[in-house]
Amino acid sequence: MIAPKHLRSAAAALVTTATLALAGPAFADLNVYEAEAGGEFGIGSAQQYGEADVQGRDFSGQDLRRSNFTSADCRNANFKGSNLQGAYFIKAVTYRTNFEDANLSDVLMDRATMVEANLRNAVLQRAVFTRSDLKDAVVEGADFTNALLDKTQVMALCKYADGVNPVTGVSTRKSLGCGSQRRYKASYPSNPDGPQVADDEKEAFRKTLPVYRQ
Length: 214
Ligand SMILES: *[C@@H]1O[C@H](CO)[C@@H](O)[C@H](O)[C@H]1NC(C)=O
Ligand SMILES: *[C@@H]1O[C@H](CO)[C@@H](O)[C@H](O)[C@H]1NC(C)=O
Description:
Elements: H1 5-22, H2 25-36, E1 128-129, E2 148-149, H3 151-158, H4 172-176, H5 181-187, H6 199-207
The site of one 2-acetamido-2-deoxy-beta-D-glucopyranose has 6 residues, from loops.
């Protein structure tokens, strides 16, 4: 017996869904496709590289605001001078990744492996690095104002942190709260007595949010 047409197409759709769910690498392909198409949000930035293998790739000087590098393998990739504001690097591997001069404000970089990453002169304001490993990262001139790092990471970075950010004029050591328990506490983002994010900065960030259809 032949099933009615609408039932057959429903069955075909089920088979397609099941095949997609089983085929792991298809997701990486989808991400590459989405990235080439300008990203899920179709706004030219916010590109999708989730779980993608972008080792050694050149992303220098690009507009990658709010892009998704969640669980991506970014080892030795080059993001020099890129604008990555609000990007997602959750659980990403950025071993020896070059972020020199990049704008990494508001990035979510928790649980990331950032060993020996190059953050020279990068702006990392309000970025979240909880449980991330920044061992031997280059931080000369980096601005960590209001960023959230584990205390052990701050202590390790303060052993050699140096320089002043050429864009914001903020001292790296000062932004990390090095050498001052009081200043460290005051600059800790979860401390309501610490410096607050200015309203115009909040507004500027809000403007970068994608507009979802109703
Ligand atoms: C980012 O990519 C990951 C992995 O592909 C995915 O699970 C997640 O939903 C994406 N997040 C956003 C905000 O696009
Ligand atoms: C980082 O990028 C955002 C969004 O483009 C911008 O508003 C902000 O001024 C930039 N920060 C710096 C220090 O250039």
